[in-house]
Amino acid sequence: MAHAATLAIQQVSKQYEVKGESLPVLSDISLSIKPGEFVSIVGSSGCGKSTLLRLIIGLEEDYQGEILLDGQRVRGTSLQRGIVFQEHRLFPWLNVRDNIGLGLLNAKLTEGQKRHTVREHIELVGLTGFETAYPHQLSGGMSQRVAIARALVNRPEVLLLDEPFGALDALTRAHLQQELRRIWQAEGITMILVTHDVEEAVYLGDRVVVMEPRPGRIRRVLPVPLAHPRERTSLAFTQVKEAVLREFAGHPEAELIEAPLKPERELAEGPLNWHFAV
């Protein structure tokens, strides 16, 4: 099991230069995330959610304020922080095993240890038997499982997820939400999810951070005091979801997704019967 990190975001602001003028993107973002916590971040388009993830992962360092991982300032990318994007970004000429193994290129492990670690993570994401399959032979959901395994194979302290299921159909998305919850509980690491889907945010998060735009700032942080696994159709779940949606009063409705409700019993019947894509 990976070490779970404490992440402290302290008065972070960010702007870009556009045609010689300063364009504020983030303004005075402060948030403390506990070890092993799952935090969901929601907000309308342009509120800076993905920019904040870029700062946490270390892709940009030109900002004001501090981002601290276990008390140390984040500087550049690191194996301590993994990330999964909406597009799986797998290499088409590599099979499942080798795509996941790319995450261990710089790891101080023997070849035998690397093979064992890759095998563990293939099993973790439910792809045993597909080790030699190539990306074009996989469904979108299977490809995202590979991307999650690749991000986890170094056992990072924090896993960042930028709309990881946004391109998937509703049923596959619901199953992968369940799988991500299972993986999070099994690995015990800190996870931060950026999503437009309020139901997804509530289903997975210990807290939901609501951001508002231009410049991006935190409007409110709402706790989700519900035990896992969560019943999407329960009154308590609906109340939390409605509390989050109320924070967006006055925002264009099209900028948020409220996924259609599905009975939890349908989603709990077991893993998808994955097939190679035709």
TrEMBL record:
SMART domains: AAA. CDD domains: ABC_NrtD_SsuB_transporters. Residues 7-238 form the ABC transporter domain. The keyword ATP-binding applies. Gene3D superfamilies: P-loop containing nucleotide triphosphate hydrolases. Keywords: ATP-binding, Cell membrane, Membrane, Nucleotide-binding, Transport. It comes from the Bacteria. InterPro entries: AAA+_ATPase, ABC_transporter-like_ATP-bd, ABC_transporter-like_CS, ABC_transporter_ATP-bind, P-loop_NTPase. GO terms for molecular function: ATP binding. Belongs to the ABC transporter superfamily. PANTHER family: ALIPHATIC SULFONATES IMPORT ATP-BINDING PROTEIN SSUB (PTHR42788:SF13), TAURINE IMPORT ATP-BINDING PROTEIN-RELATED (PTHR42788). This is ABC transporter ATP-binding protein. It comes from Curvibacter microcysteis.
